[in-house]
Amino acid sequence: MKADIARIVDDPILERLDEQVRAEEALIAAAGLETNRSGATAALDHDPAPYDLAAEAPRALSLPKLLELTGAKMPDGVAATIGNYRPIVLLHGLTPFHRQGARPREIWGMGYQATLLKCDDARTVAYEPGNNTIKVADVNQSLAFDVAIDGRIEAADQGAAGMPLLPGLTVSASTRQGFALSLHIEWAAVEVQAGPIGAGGVRWNLYRQQQRLDRHCRFIQTALVPTAAKSLTIELRTWVRRRGGFFGVFGTREWSPPPQTFKLAIETTR
Questions:
Q1: pTM of this structure
Q2: Which tens digit of pLDDT belongs to each residue from 245-256?
Q3: Handedness of CA 22, 26, 28, 33 (dihedral sign)
């Protein structure tokens, strides 16, 4: 889907990262060395969207179902539900396909937002990656998390990668007391801003510094949904941002395609 709707937005994190790079490039230019910046920003006024954003259909699984896929079972005496709610894991993914014939050189920001529709009783429990800053040298890395029966997520030791479940994601039974699953995801961002929204929704802002964004991004969310719910309807909104000139005004420009809606069956054990 092409991100062909552009507007000026406020994004303090993107502005801060971009100013850092501009200061570094000013020092490099003063020394007579070539910089990575492409030059005049006026061309942004008529630039098409720099990426085609392609969100995959999310996948919704109960924790017992995920354990079953690893060959393990729920511990004896542990219920698969909490009162009238069922903990589930939502697996999200987004790929920004780079527009051919252009090369991104500045700071890039990208966003992903998932909103549950017609499920007012749902609640987001946790989400990863969460708010963090990663060293540029460690940008392309694997992140490990343990998931508890109630949907809590905590950082984990890398350990064994486990069984491939989706691109960029592996799963295994956790060996840590109080946790059911271990998830490993491949990650490539300098800074992440994330938080729950609405009833069972979540939003991520991602940033990369002087590096391309065009690789698959994996997101993990846990939520509590009513046990009576057999399916979920999710609306996805995505966007990509960069700084530059926009009709004579210097600022942050955002391209956002129309929202996408998916209806998902909640995968549970028999």
A1: 0.81
A2: 554 556 678 888
A3: positive
